[in-house]
Specification:
The protein is about 15% helix and about 50% strand. The relative contact order is 0.10. The termini are far apart. A 5-stranded antiparallel sheet has the order 1-3-8-5-6, with no helix packed on it. It has a 5-stranded mixed sheet with strand order 2-10-9-4-7, with no helix packed on it. It has 3 domains: about 110 residues, Immunoglobulins (Immunoglobulin-like, Sandwich); about 100 residues, Immunoglobulins (Immunoglobulin-like, Sandwich); about 110 residues, Immunoglobulin-like. The chain is built from 2 helices and 28 strands.
């Protein structure tokens, strides 16, 4: 009887240890759907917005259980008068399917009323799984009259300086501070005759719009070309990027220093003259400011053959406005022993910034006095021959 009781006690202890081991090591390895949990999350649960703005919160529905389930989504709380809609791929939804140990996505679209007063507002989204898991996500929207999260258009260098024939290249960064992807229309308000082209950074193609993901920044290359005859001064080029009710803007400034160009020629454009050896020839020259900046201290100089000389009246011009012309007289004196023929006399007008040059072809002709002397000698010879003929012809 004692042995029988001892055997029963041993069997009881053995099965008790076996059951305990099963509970400790085997039971946790068995999938129990009641233990499966849901988590509802978003990357930015707090956003600052302006009245009248539309926001989008990307939602992640995480299923930590091993079994798939259908999750009901709903807006459990929202401010009075606000619109909050759950969407998936652009369609209004109220359920999502989530596989075991995986995640699904959805979007919460919130429209902030135009008359919303500054302050903090809350929207709560609820997720309830078909296997019993659930979670709530509370979102905070801070309404501000000056939207701290507004999109930004920032130039690396907002002012550039150069002559009117230069092309001004700006680098501008456009940042999307909203919670959803935005498509921006790009534009510039420029004075008449100016040209502006916009292209993505480090690319050649011109664009009129660009799409930017939430929180990201895209670089833009902006080239500004002024008109050919633009006057020196400061010019403001407003640049805008508009997407719905969102707008980013910046002002670019171009400082035109003007171009320095002049033309130096005769009023008729003819660059030739006749002169007698040892004589003087006055040639009227005209200097014209063909640039867009004022020319100061215009001086005249020449390069002529040996023993020749050139003088100018006036010898210099203090200032010449863009488009203005002034005349100057160049007195050219040929050398006394100049041989008949063509000579080049170079006349120059120059400033510190530019110069103009005219090459005159000067033809030296024999003096009329020598022609008269030759004619007189010829007449004397004829008279002598005639006299000798009469004198000796009678004999």
């Amino acid at each position: 009887m004692y042995v029988l009781r001892t055997r029963k006690l041993v069997f009881f202890v053995f099965f008790s240890v076996l059951a305990y081991a099963a509970l400790v090591w085997v039971w946790p390895c068995v999938p129990v759907e009641a233990q499966a949990g849901l988590e509802l999350s978003t990357r930015y649960p707090g956003i600052t917005a302006a009245p009248g703005e539309s926001l989008t919160f990307p939602l992640d529905v995480n299923n930590y259980g091993t079994g798939s389930q259908i999750v009901d989504l709903s807006v459990a709380q929202k401010p009075e008068g606000w619109d909050a809609t759950l969407k998936g791929r652009g369609r209004v939804i109220h359920k999502v399917f989530v596989g075991g140990k995986s995640a699904a996505t959805a979007d919460l679209h919130v429209d902030v009323p135009a008359g919303a007063e500054p302050g903090s507002y809350y929207v709560t989204v609820r997720a309830a799984g078909s296997r019993g898991g659930w979670d709530n996500l509370r979102l905070e929207i801070v309404v501000s009259r000056t939207d701290a999260g507004g999109d930004q258009l920032v130039a690396q260098y907002s002012e550039l300086k150069g002559p009117s024939d230069a092309t001004f290249k700006f680098r501008v960064d456009l940042t999307n501070n909203s919670a959803e992807e935005q498509s921006y229309s790009l534009g510039a308000a420029v004075p008449r005759g100016w040209q502006v082209s916009i292209s993505p950074a480090y690319k050649d193609q011109q664009i009129a719009s660009i799409s930017i993901k939430p929180g990201e920044t895209e670089g833009l290359d902006i080239e500004v070309t002024p008109p050919a005859q633009v006057k020196a001064g400061e010019y403001t080029i407003p640049i805008q990027a508009v997407s719905g009710s969102r707008k980013a803007a910046t002002d670019l400034k171009v400082i035109i220093t003007g171009t320095y160009e002049l033309e130096f020629t005769t009023p008729s454009g003819r660059l030739n003259a006749d002169i007698v050896a040892g004589g003087e020839k006055k040639v009227t020259m005209e200097v014209t400011n063909t640039g867009s900046a004022v020319l100061h201290n215009i001086n005249f100089s020449s390069r002529e053959p040996q023993d020749w000389s050139v003088s100018f009246d006036p010898p210099s011009i203090d200032a010449l406005e863009p488009g203005e012309s002034r005349q100057v007289t160049a007195a050219i004196k040929a050398g006394d022993k100049a041989i008949a023929g063509d000579y080049i006399v170079s006349l120059s007008a120059r400033t510190m910034e530019t110069r103009g040059q005219a090459d005159l072809r000067v033809t030296v002709k024999t003096s009329t006095l020598w022609g008269l002397v030759g004619l007189f000698i010829v007449l004397l010879v004829i008279a002598g021959v005639y006299g000798a003929f009469r004198l000796y012809g009678r004999r």
